[in-house]
Amino acid sequence: MKIASRINNLGTETAFAVSAQARKWAAKGNKVYPFHLGDINLSTPQNIIEAANRYIVDGKNGYCPSEGILPLREAMADDVGGKRGGTYSPENVSIQPGGKPTIGKFIQAVMNPGDEVLYPNPGYPIYESQIEYHGGTAVSYKYDETDTGFEIDIAKLRSSISDKTVALIYNNYNNPISAESSREEMETIAPPFFSLLIIFAHSCIKKNGALTLVLIILLNNSGDVLKIVPLSVDAALFTKISIFPNFLSIS
Hints:
The chain is of the alpha/beta class. It folds into two domains: 5-41, no CATH class; 68-250, Aspartate Aminotransferase, domain 2. The chain is 30% helix and 23% strand. It has a six-stranded mixed sheet with strand order 2-1-5-6-7-8. Strands 3-4 form a two-stranded antiparallel sheet. β5 (165-172), α7 and β6 (198-205) form a beta-alpha-beta unit. α4 (99-110) crosses α5. The termini are far apart. The model is unreliable at 199-215 and 231-251 (pLDDT under 50).
């Protein structure tokens, strides 16, 4: 059987190789602290267990709408809209099963073969993998270490913009280095990209290290929000959502 040549462009994530080694080590009776993947060994909260069991008993365990069940989309639209001072309807919200397929969908939606997409490095490995897999050119921008953490190399970012650039992938807090943009940095990044279609990825980490929320926000070239896609949701754990011009900050 002939395999499609684009498979050669599909990257991988070394965390899974480390995960396999960790499982073998744990199987020998050794203690493993699983910092290599986002799926850390925290017990499922009791209220979630009870809710899942209740839904199964009530027969709500079949296929659901591909965009997510209406009550959840209504809750997300109200929560995000209320805290951002905007008005969103369930039609603006799509619930997705995870980060990788959603990143792939957005890249396919905004990038044609031969286009360039800016992505952070260090960063989530799937950004580069999906850009290259779908025929684009992955152009990295970097972070510089400072006395207080890390900051984006703005000069490098600006110099990487070309007439082939169609999107910026921006991750704040950054995975894996946890770099957080200041307001000044956000406002510096924003102007060069108002003429571009932007994929805006934003994640928030709970105090115990577990993922609270990842949003991908799709903007048009005027900075208007076209779509909000929550990848992982625990709305009860939000601490604050505040709006900078055309950008969402979560803390």
